[in-house]
Design a protein that fits this description.
There is one protein chain. By secondary structure, this protein is mainly beta. The chain has one domain (about 25-85, about 135-155, about 165-280, about 330-615). The protein contains 10 helices and 35 strands. The strands form 8 sheets. Strands 14-15-17-18-19-26-25-24-23 form a 9-stranded antiparallel sheet, with no helix packed on it. Strands 9-8-13-12-11-10 form a 6-stranded mixed sheet, with no helix packed on it. Strands 3, 4, 5, 6 and 7 form a 5-stranded antiparallel sheet that branches. The structure holds MU-OXO-diiron (FEO) and calcium ion (3 copies). One calcium ion binds near residues 265, 266, 370, 489 and 597.
Length: about 675
């Protein structure tokens, strides 16, 4: 199998899928180092819900058939109608090549890769013969993070029957994309139209969708909102790195623009109604054949060959040559040595303004952004968002804006100025946000002390400016003394309490010889199945620089326990075993959805989605995906009655039995009785 066909997790030669569960009674009984949990925050619920959700999310028929938990008091207004949190029967693990949902629910594939979306709406051709130009007008491949924007959101509405479904297309399956997979010319170049198609299958889709009176969802054909953003779309560089010489290229000698966004994994809707797409494993798209590489490439693993060899397109056009970041000419404004420095950001897209140019928000740092999650915005207070860097032993970051948020004037400018922090999880259950700012005395002192030493593999000779700090965010975080984590993926903020949750998907190297030892927040040696961590900011103020944390749950096989103060607060069983948590989302009723991207071997079988009650830690499997896929990206309409879930890199012929190729697709999940999903 070609490297390109593998899940990014498997690109790493050290990644070891879990293969042996031969009847040994595994239980990971790990004592979560923690302080006493704060109990439920009082009176914060109203503030935590945006107007978008409002009371519309509350289903009047809360008396479900699930557990009633007498001790589970719900505070605050609007959500107190009831607390049957997981009102469905758990589904079993599955290795079937189809989606499994609970009894009483229906799952329907929607907007698969290749769906005609814009321009002349080119039909999808099931034999792979669509051209690059066709793909530029069709839904991209490998659906990932996704959000539903109610069509009337800008006017303060919360439509649950019409909206803009915006989703990322993380990477591609070349075997499915082309008639006979990727090809190479005799001289090692690649046919340009294959490259064009591959670039176009990446990026973001904005899809205007509408529900008919009969309840069926469909695309709005011809809508001006329908849009493709690809690996070649012109974008602006915004924030501190705009104009920085290390981002200057032949395309933009002033370092103000670049082309494309790539490997868009998760995302985050902003409080002002735009969409931030993350650039995760962007390093793999570039090639540098120079004898030595600059640290801003080394710390990300840019290699001598690129994942798809786009720089070898046989047209030798500038738009493809740029993926070769070797030094070619006398100065940076004549070649693409800095092209990779224009990647690694969160990219803001305004789905309601189709002609808007995407904006790379550099103040949020440059790393392998998995996604971003905003704390609820409060009038007159800074905007705060969190972002994980998904690689082994990388970090969790937080951005706090310099300017306060006011709903009437809020916009992307709020993300251009502020402080980027990185998390340190202390052994005693406390934590600190460490500012990556040369204006901070402690950070500046650590930078000075590190000068002339090796930081990891990098001979550190200082930062020439705060711009240099941001360009080298990972290196700055190393120097700051952040806690290395077990691959931070998605984050989510509990709308009821303000607690922040993050998935730590796995890290099979944790504690091995030559790698970082376990720490309290990442306490499992050779962590193959991952865990979910959570924290509460000091004073429940998201801009605070201190927090208290605990581990919400350890993933694993039947019998895996999460132990707090000597008591097993979760023991996984057939109804909820899972591994490698990745996608994470709080629905508008405060239910936590957990999606997996793990090895699909026994006992877990296909990847899945579970629902959790954040307070009781009751966890229950809701959804199992088809063979080979990961389940990633979830959102509902504001009324909670339509759920959208993405299926990435399926195999075989899912979802269409009469086609020969797998097609990434969204799955629409509804209840047959029309009520709120999950209740
Ligand atoms: Fe794209 Fe970290 O998953
Ligand atoms: Ca993925
Ligand atoms: Ca992911
Ligand atoms: Ca993953």
């Amino acid at each position: 199998m070609a490297k390109q066909d593998l899940d990014p997790n498997y690109l790493d030669p050290d990644y070891e899928p879990v293969v042996n569960h031969s009847g040994n009674t595994t239980f990971t009984s790990v004592l979560a180092s923690r302080l006493k949990r704060r109990t439920v925050m009082k009176g914060t619920v109203g503030a935590a819900l945006t107007s978008l959700m409002g009371a519309a999310a509350i289903d009047g028929n809360f008396k479900g058939n699930g557990h009633a938990r007498g001790h589970d008091k719900i505070h605050g207004k609007g959500l107190a109608k009831g607390h049957t949190r997981l009102g469905f029967k758990a589904v079993a693990v599955s290795d079937a090549n189809r989606v499994v949902v609970p009894e009483g629910y229906t799952a329907q594939p929607f907007v698969p890769w290749g769906t005609p979306l814009t321009g002349d709406y080119p039909d999808y051709r099931p034999d792979g013969t669509n051209t690059g130009a066709d793909q530029e007008n069709q839904v991209g491949m490998h659906h990932d993070g996704m959000h539903f924007f109610p069509i009337d959101q800008k006017a303060g509405g919360s439509s649950s029957t019409e909206g803009l479904l915006v989703m990322n297309h993380e990477y591609i399956n070349q075997s499915a994309l082309h008639p006979s997979g990727a090809t190479t010319n005799g001289d090692g170049t690649r046919p340009v139209d294959e490259v064009r198609k591959e670039v176009a299958a990446h990026g973001v889709s904005v899809i205007h969708i509408k529900q008919s009176g009969g309840g069926e969802w469909d695309m709005v054909h011809g809508s001006p909102f329908n849009r493709r953003i690809t690996g070649g779309t012109p974008m602006d560089i915004r924030g501190p790195l705009r104009g920085y010489e290390k981002l200057a290229t032949k395309y933009s000698p002033t370092a103000t623009e670049t082309r494309g966004t790539l490997n868009n994994c998760a995302m985050g809707p902003t409080p002002w109604g735009t969409y931030l797409a993350a650039e995760e494993n962007w390093h793999g798209y570039f090639a540098n054949s120079d004898a030595t590489q600059p640290r801003e490439q080394v710390r990300h693993g840019v290699g001598s060959a690129s994942r798809y060899d786009w720089e070898l397109a046989d047209s030798a056009e500038d738009q493809y040559l740029r993926f070769d970041v070797s030094v070619k000419e006398a100065s940076a404004d004549l070649d693409y040595r800095n092209e990779a420095n224009t990647y690694g950001f969160m990219v803001e897209i305004d789905p309601f303004t189709p002609e808007s140019k995407p904006q790379k928000r550099t103040a949020l740092g440059r790393f392998g952004h998995e996604g971003v999650i905003f704390a609820p915005a409060k009038e007159g207070e800074p905007v705060v968002c969190y972002s994980g860097d998904d690689s082994r032993f990388e970090y969790i970051y937080k951005f706090v804006s310099a300017q306060p948020y006011y709903a009437a004037t809020a916009g992307g400018y709020l993300l251009d100025e502020g402080t980027l922090y990185v998390a340190r999880f202390n052994e005693d259950g406390t934590g600190d946000w460490l500012p990556l700012s040369l204006d901070d005395e402690n950070f500046a002192a650590r930078v000075a002390a590190a000068e002339g030493t090796n930081v990891g593999d990098i001979a550190f000779d200082g930062f020439d400016s705060q711009q240099d700090v941001l360009l080298n965010t990972r290196l700055a975080a190393d120097i700051a003394g952040a806690t290395t984590m077990d691959r931070p993926e998605w984050g989510a903020v509990d709308p009821r309490t303000g607690e922040v949750y993050f998935t730590l998907t796995n890290n099979s190297n944790r504690g091995k010889d030559g790698y970082d030892d376990v720490n309290a927040a990442n306490p499992v040696v050779e962590n193959r199945t991952g865990h979910i961590i959570r924290w509460m900011e000091a004073g429940n103020d998201h801009a605070a620089t201190a927090f208290e944390w605990d581990i919400f749950v350890f993933a694993g096989e039947q019998g895996t326990e999460t132990v707090v103060d000597g008591e097993a607060v979760v023991t996984l069983d057939d109804s909820n075993i899972f591994n490698s948590p990745d996608g994470l989302w709080f629905d508008y009723n405060g239910r936590l959805w957990i999606q997996t991207d793990g090895s699909w071997s026994a006992p877990y079988l296909n990847n899945m989605m579970l629902a959790a009650d954040p307070r009781t830690r009751d966890i229950r499997r809701f959804f199992v995906g088809p063979v080979g896929c990961e389940v990633t990206g979830v959102v509902t309409t504001p009324d909670g009655k339509t759920m959208f879930v993405n299926i990435q890199h399926p195999r075989g012929n899912w979802p269409n039995a009469d086609e020969s190729r797998p097609r990434d697709a969204t799955v629409i999940v509804t209840r047959d009785d029309g009520r709120v999903v999950g209740v």
